[in-house]
Amino acid sequence: MSKIVLIGANHAGIAAANTILDSYPENEVVIIDKNTNLSYLGCGTALWVGRHIDSYEHLFYTNKEAFEEKGARILMETTVESIDFDNKLIHATRANGEKFEESYDKVILATGSVPIAPNIKGTDLENVQFVKLFQDSQVADKALCDDSIKEVAVIGAGYIGVEMAEAVKRRGKNVRLFDAADTSLNTYYDPWFTEDMDNVLTENGIQTHYGEMVQSFEGKDGKVTDLTTDKGTYKTDLVIMAIGFSPNNSLGKDKLETFNNGAYLVNLKQETSLPDVYAVGDCATIYSNAIEDTTYIALATNAVRSGIVGGHNAAGTPLESIGVQGSNGISIFGYNMVSTGLNLAAAKEAGYEVKYTDFEDLQKPGFIEKNGNVKIRIVYDAKTRRVLGAQMASTEDISMGIHMFSLAIEEKVTIDKLKLLDIFFLPHFNQPYNYITMAALSAE
């Protein structure tokens, strides 16, 4: 029997805790989190704020009581100040200011990530808002209920920024979307796809400001009133910051080996550089099957998988991660985009000599009334012909197809193997010459 302490109770920490409690109930489990709640689905913030869903309650998929019923001891509103890794002691402070120590046999760091806060003037003004925690979403939602707030600026055109821009627009506000890059979503998608998303945004009334660097926020009576970039100044009643996230490594950065971005460096068992210390989720590295190397990909799905692996290993069962592909997706104003692995820019940055094949057609035969155009790109290694990535987009739901490409990357499938892949046909779903088949057949 071991005493296993988990620090952090969101996706990764919860997955690790459930793994231990369900499969190894003989262990003592202690969960520490500084928040008032656990298990908030941050990726659902835009759904609630944009009123796609009626309330936020179902964005919490578990609670403190569920873990206590399994035998865990839960310490919420408790801040871990430091960890003495040599003596296996955690120094923490309760909400009432009481300080205490918690011993452990093994510790799992699931401290997640923190929003990137740019060092620019005015970020401390009222109505300059980050979106990460449930409390952040409450503040943003309350602000959008204020009729005096009419002009909203969203900083960052990644997944969260684009989703929040749509959500704010659905609340009847004027929205400007800013990013230093030349297009939205450029981390996961090539311009052939992102330019379509940019058109969707502008057609739905969002003003896009790409290639603009925010320089400062100005205010009056402590509230933000204007935003200045290198290209102009804009009246702004509310700013939503969605630049991105960095790993929260404050508890171990001086003792544990870290990656180039500060994430805890872990092996396939989620073990850090110190014995009996594990790291899971957004605070840790992950192995990418696309680049065949360690990297950092902050996704909830990756957090859950790493938590499961870390939980088994902390409880004494050796288990290695099989790696990830970084599969992801987004749906904005009914336009759906999904991707996995590497886009062209990422593949070239990783040192690959790459080729790609594109195809575009209707999802279903032309005589089907409810139909939509589909775009697909498959990126592959020019030398080995191994599939490195795939991107798809449509007003139709084509999301399940990306799972096949995820497995193809994991299993090192070549583009040629896909050319005569057995893909079923039925007019209700697809065309006899399936877009996946046609894309593969079109490869050089």
CATH uppermost class of the largest domain: Alpha Beta
Distance between the termini: 58 Å
From the spread of the alpha carbons, the general shape counts as globular
The overall number of domains is 3
**Which fold name corresponds to the CATH topology of the largest domain?**
FAD/NAD(P)-binding domain
Fourth CATH level, the homologous superfamily of the largest domain = FAD/NAD(P)-binding domain
Structural class: alpha/beta
Radius of gyration: 23 Å
Percentage of residues assigned to helices: 10-25%
What characterizes the major β-sheet?
5 strands, parallel
Low-confidence stretches: none
Tally the helices: 10
User: Do you know the CATH architecture of the largest domain?
Assistant: 3-Layer(bba) Sandwich
Number of beta strands: 25
Q: Could you tell me the strand content as a percent range? A: 25-35%
Average of the residue pLDDT scores:
95
Oligomer: single chain
Which strand order does the major sheet show?
Answer: 3-2-1-7-18
Word description of this protein:
The protein is α/β, with parallel strands linked by helices and 444 residues long. The chain folds into three domains: 3-113 and 246-314, FAD/NAD(P)-binding domain; 117-243, FAD/NAD(P)-binding domain (3-Layer(bba) Sandwich), CATH 3.50.50.60; 335-441, Enolase-like, domain 1. Helices cover 22% and strands 29% of the residues. It has helices spanning 11-23, 45-49, 64-69, 134-144, 159-170, 191-203, 300-314, 344-349, 401-410, 435-441, and strands at residues 3-7, 28-32, 73-75, 78-84, 89-94, 99-103, 106-109, 113-115, 128-130, 151-155, 174-179, 207-210, 214-220, 223-229, 233-235, 238-241, 245-247, 277-279, 286-288, 293-295, 328-332, 335-341, 354-362, 373-381, 387-394. The chain starts with a strand and ends with a helix. The mean pLDDT is 95. The strands form seven sheets. A five-stranded parallel β-sheet has the order 3-2-1-7-18. A five-stranded parallel β-sheet has the order 9-16-10-11-12, with helices on one face. It is globular, with a radius of gyration of 23 Å. α1 (11-23) packs parallel to α7 (300-314).
